[in-house]
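Need fresh eyes. Consider my entry:
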Amino acid sequence: MFDIIIVGVGTAGLSAAIYGLRAGKSVLVLGRDDVWRSIINTPEIENYPGIQKISGFEFATNLIAGKGSRSGCSHRKGSFHREEWSI
């Protein structure tokens, strides 16, 4: 059982996981690892808040390090299929 389940391992998903963990919640992140291929191969990133210039590989490495076993976040590989939700 998890307090928070996040669908997506991109920058927004991992940022949400970090904030959830800081709040003392148990977090599960669902997503595909192949989402990082395009960012890793990007030679230079200069439009991300708080970062002047960084390589895509370094950016991804730094961000992924924040969701690893040190942080207490669980990760499951897989695809998420769109479902109909009603509120």
